[in-house]
């Protein structure tokens, strides 16, 4: 069994450019995932993780471990507290699970 410590200090990638200062760990890869990916990111205050985007063939989850990030959605912006989870559904194409 492969294990990854979410509160450790193992990062696979960093981005260090204006407005995009982050660290990222490819958790799914570290624990042997083949069908579902998972990554964990640490975003410095005032920075962005990704540009606003949509996935058409897969859903995406965001689980907040620390801090209070702001998520942009079609409904507007929403601040999340730690320990919150948010689903971003696929916006078209084939879904793997019924609604």
Task: Give structural attributes.
99 residues; mainly beta; 2 domains; three-stranded antiparallel sheet; two-stranded antiparallel ribbon; 1 helix; 7 strands; 4% helix; globular
How is this structure best described in words?
This protein is mainly β and 99 residues long. The C terminus is likely disordered. The chain is globular. The protein has 1 helix and 7 strands. Helices cover 4% and strands 31% of the residues.
Q: Proportion of β residues?
A: 25-35%
**What is the overall shape?**
globular
Number of domains: 2
Tally of DSSP helical segments: 1
- Structural class label: mainly beta
Radius of gyration using CA atoms only: 14 Å
**SSE arrangement, N to C:** EEHEEEEE
- Roughly what percent helix? under 10%
Strand order across the biggest sheet?
1-2-3
Mean pLDDT: 87
For the terminal residues, how far apart are their CA atoms? Answer: 31 Å
Please give the structural blueprint.
Layout: E1 13-17, E2 20-25, H1 27-30, E3 40-43, E4 60-63, E5 70-73, E6 76-79, E7 85-88
Short description:
With 99 residues, the protein is mainly β. It is 4% helix and 31% strand.
């Amino acid at each position: 069994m492969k294990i990854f410590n979410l509160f450790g200090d193992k990062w696979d990638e960093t981005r260090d450019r204006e407005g995009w200062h982050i660290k990222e760990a490819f958790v799914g890869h570290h624990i042997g995932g083949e069908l579902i990916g998972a990554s964990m990111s640490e975003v410095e205050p005032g920075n962005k993780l990704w540009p606003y985007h949509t996935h058409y063939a897969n859903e995406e989850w965001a689980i907040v471990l620390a801090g209070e990030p702001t998520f942009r959605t079609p409904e507007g912006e929403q601040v999340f507290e730690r320990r919150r989870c948010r689903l971003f559904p696929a916006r078209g194409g084939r879904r793997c699970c019924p609604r």
